[in-house]
Write a structure and sequence with these properties.
This protein has 326 residues and is an alpha/beta fold. It has 10 helices and 13 strands. It has a single domain, classed as Vaccinia Virus protein VP39 (Rossmann fold, 3-Layer(aba) Sandwich), CATH 3.40.50.
């Protein structure tokens, strides 16, 4: 299989990040928007913000949804990145459930190495640690320090790369489990990440990734899930297309209620794990609803515009009634 370059540069992106094809169609154009995590302070609130194009494109053959403009990850995920999962009780419960299922389903032995990509404050790894696993996080922001101080999770403060994966194997071992919860769609350097995963994953290991799901974005008119952090919005079809380039395959897929609709996939080396029937069922559902057809996304745009008009009407009405709109 000829492998396209899965790493993309900053700025305009005019080809499918999985296949390299340029035959994409526009799903929706949300105009120019500032990065969603660029929270303003008293010192910066009067300063002009930087805006970037925000347009979602679809390539039918790969099933991938992606932005057509890539913003620098150092801007989107600054050293003082404010988001952390550990302060949300429902999210903590969700992450604990993931760890319990992984340990049970794959019969992990004590001290098995579990690596989390984009590990943030170490919440998911803290649950692996409590179950007797060896844990290691990879996190580029200062949340790496929080993970150690609050959860005792050793964390490499860096973006995940093939070089980092090599270092982990050298110092520890191959990983029985690699997790990537709500980060796998964020990296422009998809190829770098996948090369790192393939370098790090043990021969019978499992890579578990959870991301927002293109099907639920489409069915729920979730235009609020389209923002610069999400360079890609995966369908299951797109993930099934991606992993074989690295000798791997998706063997399980679950549709979740998290974040109003997410997909969790489990992948491993080709032929190492039986394929769950859920994979085929979800692939058929994506086709059935017209997820990869331009006319279906025309209806999506119409629904989004109607929501926009209703919201603007609400704001104008509130202002007329003397309410303060900020």
């Amino acid at each position: 299989m000829i492998k396209p370059n899965h790493d993309v540069g900053l700025g305009p992106l005019n080809h499918c990040q999985i296949t390299g094809s340029k035959n994409l169609f526009e799903a929706i154009d949300l105009g120019l928007q500032p990065p969603c995590s660029a929270l303003l302070t008293d010192a910066t609130i009067r300063h002009p913000e930087t805006y970037y194009p925000l347009r979602l494109m679809i390539y039918p053959e790969s099933g991938l949804g992606q932005l057509d403009y890539v913003v620098d990850g150092k801007i989107l995920f600054p050293i003082d990145y404010p988001y952390r999962p550990g302060i949300s009780a429902p999210l903590r419960d969700h992450l604990k459930l993931i760890t319990d299922e992984i340990i049970s389903n794959f019969k992990l032995a004590p001290k098995s190495l579990c690596v989390d990509i984009g590990s943030n404050d170490g919440t998911i790894l803290s649950f692996f640690k409590k179950r007797g696993m060896t844990t290691l996080g990879v996190e580029p922001t200062n949340m790496a320090k929080t993970a150690w101080k609050e959860n005792g999770i050793k964390t490499i403060q860096s973006f995940f790369t093939e070089a980092i994966a090599k270092d982990i194997v050298k110092e520890y071992s191959k990983a029985k489990v690699i997790t990537a919860t709500n980060v796998f769609a964020h990296m422009a350097t998809l190829g770098e990440v996948m090369r790192g995963v393939s370098r790090l994953l043990d021969k019978d290991g499992v890579f578990v990734a959870e991301s927002q799901y293109l099907l639920d974005v489409f069915l729920g008119n979730q235009f609020d899930e389209i923002y610069h952090d999400h360079v890609r919005i995966y369908s299951l079809k797109s993930l099934v297309k991606l992993f074989p380039y690295y000798g791997m395959e998706v063997f399980d897929a679950q549709r979740l209620n998290t974040r109003e609709g997410s997909i969790r996939v489990s992948a491993g080396w080709k032929g190492k794990h039986p394929i769950n029937p859920n994979v085929g069922k979800l692939l058929k559902l994506e086709v059935k609803v017209g997820l990869f057809k331009p006319q279906a996304w025309a209806k999506f745009r119409k629904n989004v515009n109607e929501s926009r008009e209703k919201f603007l009407h609400f704001l104008h009405d509130a202002k007329k009634r003397g309410k303060t709109v900020v």
